[in-house]
Amino acid sequence: MGRTATSSSHALIGGVAGAGLAYKGAEVIQWSNIWKRPSSFAGAAYRLAIGFAVMIGVYWLFRRWRPADVDKIFRKGQLISAALYSLGHGGNDAQKTMGIIMRCLSPVGVMNPDETLSLTNPRTLWIILSCHLAMGWHRVRGWRIVKTMG
């Protein structure tokens, strides 16, 4: 069974736009901002080229090594890369969730719409930490991605 790639950014944009449509109609949507999202195909092609170049470089670097020695190094490296992937994913995708939480708390008066998220601001620290923790925990538990990518 095939898997479908999804984009949380596209889903977030679509969800917010859909909420705006349901609330006030098409006139509240700033369509020029929605169409600013870069083409997924161009980004994927660029990442494919970079990944291919890195793969060739790693292959060339280890071309004279014994497979057993390479396996030992790469098994350890896989754990490190999984940890860094979790940290990066939690840090990047959590930002989207933080924005939605702030957007939801502003109209009801819990947060000031001009308030910025900051680690030094005790009023917003809980938002940052909870979003990072949720995203990081999801990836740490997600060994399936480690097996797939490994």
Write the layout of secondary structure elements.
Blueprint: H1 8-24, H2 31-34, H3 40-61, H4 67-105, H5 122-141, H6 143-149
Helix pairs in contact: 4-5
Describe the structure.
73% of the residues lie in helices and 0% in strands. The protein contains 6 helices and no strands. Helix 4 packs antiparallel against helix 5. The protein is elongated. The protein starts with 7 loop residues before the first helix and ends with a helix. The N terminus is likely disordered.
Kindly summarize this structure in a few lines.
With 150 residues, this protein is mostly helical. It has six helices and no strands.
Structure characteristics:
150 residues, mainly alpha, elongated
The percentage helix is: over 70%
* Residue runs with pLDDT of under 50 for 5 or more positions: 1-5
What is the number of helical segments per DSSP (H or I, 4+ residues)?
A: 6
Compute the average pLDDT. 78
- Beta fraction: under 5%
Distance between the termini: 20 Å
Total number of β-strand segments?
0
Shape assignment? elongated
Summing up helix and strand content along with how strands pair, one would put the structural category as mainly alpha
Q: Report the biggest beta sheet as strand number plus sense, adding barrel if it closes.
A: none
